[in-house]
Amino acid sequence: MIRCLNEDVDGSCKNVFKAWAQRTQATDNPLRSDPDDAELLLHIPFDGAVKLKAICVIGGSGGSAPSKMRAFINRDDLDFASISSMAPLQEWDLQQDNDGSLEYPTQVAKFSGVHSLDLHFTGTFGAEQCEIHFVGLKGEYSERQRRAVEAVYEARPVPKDHQVPGDMQGSHWSVS
Asked: Distance (Å, rounded) from C-alpha 40 to C-alpha 31?
């Protein structure tokens, strides 16, 4: 389930994910940070593995768009205290973009096999409150394959189970 820490209205983080063709349409209830803190931590889980190639962010007008974005992958336990001491997988300085024409490329080798993505937005372009209208993710999806793995472990090897043809037993290998 998509969730966001420090959002002004609970559940508004789901409104920023929409079809690419609808990215410029006005969002009824955009994702906004609390008025006293322009910081958001957005958690996006995936049903399978994703190779993430680019991220697009459309922020609010009047300087309320986020100015920095940091990405973390495959973590379900992040909060503001934990990310303050962690190095992100990648970090971007964002630009004000109202039409979604800017894509921020990822280092694809680092963003392969992504099962969850955490985006940390900090700062604005002058406003007290951070506002996001659209988040787009570009990449390749592969279905998660979950199945049992059958493995046999031997606590003590049984020599009869490991027969070698001929007279090549143990340390008596013939070398020609």
From this structure: 9
pLDDT of the residue at 153:
74
| 89 has pLDDT over 90 | yes
Whether the per-residue pLDDT at 173 is higher than 70: the answer is no
**What is the model's pLDDT at position 149?**
74
Supply 153's token pair: 């472990």
33 neighbors 129 (Cβ within 8 angstroms)? yes
160 phi and psi angles, rounded to 5 deg: -65, -25
Closest to 56 measured CA to CA, from 10, 92, 81: 92
Question: What whole-number distance in Å separates Cα of residue 166 and Cα of residue 76?
Answer: 56
- The single-letter code of the amino acid at 72 is F
Residue 95 clears pLDDT 90, i.e. is over it: yes
Question: Could you give the C-alpha distances from 102 to 80, 97, 124, 136, in angstroms and in order?
Answer: 27, 7, 17, 11
- In this prediction the pTM is 0.80
Helix (H) or strand (E) holding 81: helix 80-84
Contact 54, 103 (CB under 8 A): yes
For CA atoms 120, 121, 123, 128, give the dihedral sign: negative
